[in-house]
Amino acid sequence: DTTQPRRVALVTGASRGIGRAVAHELGRQGRIVVGTATSESGAEKIDADLKSQGIEGAGMCLNVTEQASIDGVLKAIGERFGAPTILVNNAGITRDNLLMRMKEDQWDDVMDTNLKSVYRVSKACLRGMTKARFGRIVSISSVVATMGNAGQSNYAAAKAGMEGFSRALAREVASRAITVNAVAPGFIATDMTEALPEAQKEALLAQIPLTRLGEPDEIAAAVGFLTSDAAGYITGETLHVNGGMNM
Ligand code: NAD
User: Fold this and answer.
1) Is the pLDDT of residue 192 over 90?
2) Which among 24, 38, 144, 222 is placed 20 to 30 Å from 183, CA to CA?
3) Is pLDDT at 4 greater than 70 in this prediction?
């Protein structure tokens, strides 16, 4: 519908990996895209990257663990492009350790960055979505939320929490035509998996029926679908994209 205003999408952690691929995909769908990085120089890089792809939008600096940072970015987006009606909660970290050795700060950092951030950023975007009577929230979970993974009790708890959060919020906002979903990637070729030891990577591949890691674009395609008008009747769902690792 050409009479509709162009939708503004906010993608957290868009400097590389899955977030960058998502920003590109949403841009290809004609969204105005704001991608965030954790530094000013990272934000400038995203800015240039989006331009080079012919995507309207901007790179902005955001720390999802700081409420003031979130408020500042939403104010800036509102003034420049209008309130975002598409949110992709992608920013995330790992701090792996067996529970016996896990330090409290490893637990807390993952909870804060991967789960509390979803509470903070989603809440901050809801007013604009409610006003627009349209919204799409997609959070990037993980196959580890359902399968578990030794050394990732903090990460699995945060991702499973994110999926439960999405189902509860989906029920709260459905009457406003806002959908809330998750995409749960398996193991995707990014900096996060590049850091794994070679032996662990081999063992991983043996568990994947499609016999390869996934590509960031393959996650972006799922996010692109869930944020589209075509997916308007899907809410509270987790879409698994894992090469058959968990079925
Ligand atoms: P990545 O490490 O390449 O990118 C993570 C992004 O998050 C970066 O842009 C980083 O700057 C950002 N980020 C980190 N801390 C932040 C903070 N405090 N505030 C704002 N941004 C912050 O990782 P990726 O592999 O592209 O992962 C993206 C998402 O996908 C994560 O949520 C991750 O848990 C999830 N995921 C990844 C895989 C995989 O195999 N790579 C699998 C399942 C889920």
Assistant:
1) no
2) 38
3) no
